[in-house]
From TrEMBL:
Keywords: Magnesium, Metal-binding, Molybdenum, Molybdenum cofactor biosynthesis, Transferase. PANTHER family: GEPHYRIN, MOLYBDOPTERIN BIOSYNTHESIS PROTEIN. The lineage of its organism: Bacteria, Bacillati, Actinomycetota, Actinomycetes, Streptosporangiales. One of its GO terms (cellular component) is cytosol. It catalyses: adenylyl-molybdopterin + molybdate = Mo-molybdopterin + AMP + H(+). GO terms for molecular function: metal ion binding; molybdopterin molybdotransferase activity. This is Molybdopterin molybdenumtransferase. It comes from the Bacteria. Catalyzes the insertion of molybdate into adenylated molybdopterin with the concomitant release of AMP. The keyword Cell cycle does not apply. Belongs to the MoeA family. InterPro entries: MoaB/Mog-like_dom_sf, MoaB/Mog_dom, MoeA-like, MoeA_C_domain_IV_sf, MoeA_linker/N, MoeA_linker/N_sf.
Length: 397
């Protein structure tokens, strides 16, 4: 199957997940599926915007009480000539006309008193402007105001905003659950690989790639070679095999004696949607639908081939399920690339002012080039030209 057709088919194969209410932190990076409205006004009541004295009428003012943020509000209405010592954010008493910040406050003698008095009562004075330093109820955000529309991306700032408006959950499209199955008797997961062994280089990049595309890796299972373990891991009811889920199989996609994925999928009655893609690297990649509704993505064992295949089949379907389509980017190509007569080539490049620069080191078995690059240039079969499509490589963080 041509590369572009495989990518489009992968996107179509995933239905959009139904919106769900999730706790705020889980909504990060998702899109809102409903407008976000204020459940409460901000601020909720009239509050002091400065530490100082809430005052009524003209000074000097007799200090009749104090109120802290979180403390009990002052119980009575202030009368002209009265002040209440107040903390920033504390409810302003009824009748308060302004807040006099400490910095602008002078100790005042009681009216009609000749000098500084020794009474236990306190008098304060200072210049205030009517209404100054009191944030009125709903002044920042009115109750019921719609602050964000459906489709808005949930950023860290959106989480803080939603919390301040009284929300504990947000309605978003959930992250599609991806289960990773790493096959290969020769594959080890820690330390230096002994001769004939190889460190798993695919399992470590999948969670970041899936998260970046809008999904979530729910678990990783390491499988020995052989059809039995793979069949059990993809059987009905196994993690990643249900509707709205994805199982990613690393390795076992080619034609060797240990490459059992095709046979296992046939035995399970899966519908093979993509069986090989005309792309280099990564042609032995597969997409299938299990009878239970789950999708299986087969990635080749060579790590750069697996990355190229993950960007061809896995990322588009995860994005589609999450409702977060990628933008299309084209660029000039600032360096030579090899062109294949029948296959699309995916070439690691770095964007620069001159265009996309091929970084080399792009053998299927090595992620060196992909690690140096920030995008893959899509070089169609027989291509000649100047502008080229780029697909973004996932960034960290
Ligand atoms: N007769 C054919 N042989 C091969 C073909 C073909 O079309 N006909 N295609 C070649 C290409 S291209 C690729 S890519 C590989 C894909 O093979 P598999 O998906 O079956 O993967 P394996 O055979 O298990 O492994 C291939 C290679 O990758 C190493 N590997 C496997 N898993 C990992 C991992 N998690 N991390 C790092 N490296 C891994 C494995 O040791 C092998 O060296 O098939 C070609 N052969
Ligand atoms: O798909 Mo294999 O890509 O070249 O190593």
């Amino acid at each position: 199957m041509p590369w572009a057709a495989a990518r489009a088919l992968a996107a179509r194969s995933a239905g959009r997940l139904e919106p769900a209410r999730v706790p705020l932190q889980e909504a990060l990076g998702r899109r809102l599926t409903a407008p976000l409205a204020a459940l409460v006004p901000v601020p909720g009541v009239d509050v002091a915007a400065m530490d100082g004295y809430a005052v009524a009428g003209r000074g000097p003012w007799l200090v009749v009480g104090g109120v802290l943020a979180g403390g009990a509000p002052y119980g009575e209405a202030l009368r002209a000539g009265e002040a209440v010592e107040i903390a920033t954010g504390a409810p302003a008493p009824a009748g308060a006309e302004a807040v006099l910040p400490y910095e602008h406050t002078v100790a005042a003698p009681p009216p009609g008193h000749g000098g500084a008095g020794h009474e236990p009562v306190t008098w304060v004075d200072g210049a205030v402007e009517a209404g100054r330093h009191i944030r009125r109820r709903g002044e920042d955000i009115a109750e019921d105001a719609v602050v964000l529309g459906a489709g808005a991306m949930v950023t860290p700032a959106v989480l803080g905003l939603a919390a301040s408006l009284g929300h504990d959950t947000l309605l978003v499209r959930p992250r599609i659950r991806v289960t990773v199955l790493v096959t290969g008797d020769e594959v080890v997961h820690a330390g230096l690989p002994a001769p004939g062994r190889v460190r798993d280089a695919i399992g470590p990049f999948l969670p970041g790639l899936v998260e970046w595309a809008g999904g979530r890796v729910a678990g990783e299972t390491r499988l020995p070679d052989g059809p039995g373990p793979l069949r059990a891991a993809l059987a009905d009811g196994a993690p990643g095999t249900g509707a709205g889920e994805v199982a990613v199989v690393c390795g076992a996609s080619s034609k060797g004696p240990a490459d059992h994925l095709r046979g296992v999928l046939a035995r399970l009655g899966a519908e093979l949607l993509v069986d090989g893609v005309a792309v280099r690297p990564g042609h032995p990649q597969m997409l299938a639908r299990l009878p239970g509704g789950g999708l299986v993505v087969g990635l080749p064992g060579n790590p750069f081939a697996a990355l190229a295949a993950a960007l061809t089949l896995l990322a588009p379907l995860v994005r589609e399920a999450a409702g977060t389509a990628a933008g299309r980017e084209t660029s000039a190509l600032a360096g030579p690339v090899r062109v294949h007569p029948r296959d699309t080539r995916l070439v690691p490049v770095r964007r620069s002012g001159r265009g996309a620069v091929p970084v080399g080191h792009d053998r299927p078995g090595s992620l060196w080039g992909a690690a140096l690059a920030d995008a893959l240039a899509v070089v169609p079969p027989g291509w000649s030209g100047e502008q080229i499509e780029l697909i973004e490589l996932p960034l960290g963080g």
